[in-house]
Structure prediction request, 314 residues.
Amino acid sequence: MALVTTKKMFEMAYKNGYAIGAFNVNNMEITQGIVAAIAEEKAPLILQISRGAREYAKMSYLKAIIDVAVAENPDIPICMHLDHGDTIEICKQCVDDGFTSVMIDASHHPFEENVRITKEVVKYAHAHGVVVEAELGQLGGIEEDVVGVDDVSAHLTDPAQAQTFVEKTGCDSLAVAVGTSHGAYKFKSEPKIAFDVIEKIQRRLPGFPLVMHGASSVLKEFKDLINKYGGKMPDAMGVPEEAISRAAKMAVCKVNIDTDLRMALTAKIRQVFAEKPGEFDPRKYLGPGREAIKQMVKHKLHVLGCAGKAAECL
Ligand code: G3H
Ligand code: 13P
Ligand code: ZN
Prediction:
């Protein structure tokens, strides 16, 4: 089957209390690791591409890799999504390039400007059968000045504003700031997720899918391997997986994961280099990295509750 939008996935995820994993792809090995996992677990999938990924790998290469994944898995719904599109132009370009979902992230603009930009993307995307994720509130990491939960809490999504925003823009899903942030250093002390904010938004917008960005867990296994084999990430801390599972049972229908992929790949490459300093065949270190991604994603699909749900999302 061809690439799909997130419409049916979100409908089923909301109704049945799970979330779809949205994994960032930057090259063939990362994509293959993710796709091997969803094929074995029979899970619906969102493959997302950032502007940085487009610049690094070239859209034509990434699209060709994803086309193969789609062709080889006809029983699995796969969506190709633009992650953090920051201008109307890039969103339109991605619609034209065959994406089935785009994110317009105009959250750094004042509210009315965010509405205006998002509305224009929605108009263009919907006319082409493409769905739109928007963002309200400020996540850490990408917004450089907002890092760590103490700062992030000042920028949480306002539930009343979220309702107005969705009604005014007609967006299909909304990325909300609920205490998570991008990257490997999300919390300075105990992780805190604002479940009350999710609940309040859910009450105002029943049935409407929310998106959790910055949702990597910074898995101990990979953090330890990185630190053991010459890396230096002692203070890395992610979102506890129990919190992800809890959000997935609520209105959160899409959970974004990139850092955990990066750490799995990096950990295995570091391990191979440390244990076999003479190794210079890329297949011998990218291969274990790809396998680590596959096993990590398989595990995540159970945390999200979407393993075995491919058929109902078709
Ligand atoms: O949201 C951020 C994702 O991890 C993508 O990161 O812009 O470095 O590709 P990137
Ligand atoms: P992580 O950095 O937590 O993996 O978040 C990724 C993300 O939100 C991509 O949009
Ligand atoms: Zn993000």
